[in-house]
Amino acid sequence: MEEFDIGARLKAMRTAGQLTQRQLAERAGVPHAQISNIEKNKISPSIATLRKVLGGMSVTMADFFEPERKPNPGPYFSADELIDLTSRVVINSAVSQTGLLSLRQIGDARLHNLQVLHEIYEPGADTGESMLQHASSEGGYVVEGELALNVGDEFRILKAGEAYLFDSRVPHRFRNLSGQRTVVVSACTPPYL
C-alpha cells in the first residue's frame, strides 16, 4: 500500500483554496514555518497540530485523509455518487464554517472539462468576504430560495427560476441572506475545485 503524503496533500488543499502558507498559518494560529515544514515533510505533525492546521481551511480530518476516489464515469449518477467538495472551498465567514454550505459535484469534472455542482446554502451561508476569482466561466440556476450574488461591483438577489452566467476572473461572492434554504445547480468550465 502506498504511503500517504501529508505534505503534498496539505499543499494541494491549501493551493486549491488560494491561500499562501502565511495566510493559512495565521488562520490556524500556528507559526508560518510549521506550515512550510509540514508541506516539505520535514516534520510530521501531531494529530492536534494537524487538526488545528486543517481547521484553518475548514477541512475535517476525514476529508483530509479520504483517498481521492475514482468517480463513476456516468452517464447516470445516484445521489450517493455525487462527490462532496465542500471542504475544498475555504470559507471566510464564521457562520459558514459550521457547515451551512454544501457543494456536491456530478461525475469527473476533469475528464469532461466541465464541473456541474448541486449547491445548498442554508440561511447565513456565505463563500466569504474574500471574493472568489479563477480562470473559468460559470453559470447557475436557482432552483429554490434566494441567492445573493456579487460579480465585481454588481450585486443582485436571484430568486428561484432566475440564473447567472459570468467570467469567473471577475471577483465574485455567493451568499444566502434569507431565512430559507437556497438550492442552486451550477456549471463551471474549466473546473475550479
TrEMBL record:
It holds the Pfam family Cupin_2. Keywords: DNA-binding. One of its GO terms (cellular component) is cytosol. InterPro entries: Cro/C1-type_HTH (IPR001387), Cupin_2 (IPR013096), Lambda_DNA-bd_dom_sf (IPR010982), RmlC-like_jellyroll (IPR014710), RmlC_Cupin_sf (IPR011051), TransReg_Diox_bact_type (IPR050807). The keyword DNA-binding applies. The keyword Thylakoid does not apply. Residues 10-64 form the HTH cro/C1-type domain. One of its GO terms (molecular function) is DNA-binding transcription factor activity. SUPFAM superfamilies: lambda repressor-like DNA-binding domains (SSF47413), RmlC-like cupins (SSF51182). This is XRE family transcriptional regulator. It comes from Nitratireductor indicus C115. The lineage of its organism: Bacteria, Pseudomonadati, Pseudomonadota, Alphaproteobacteria, Hyphomicrobiales.
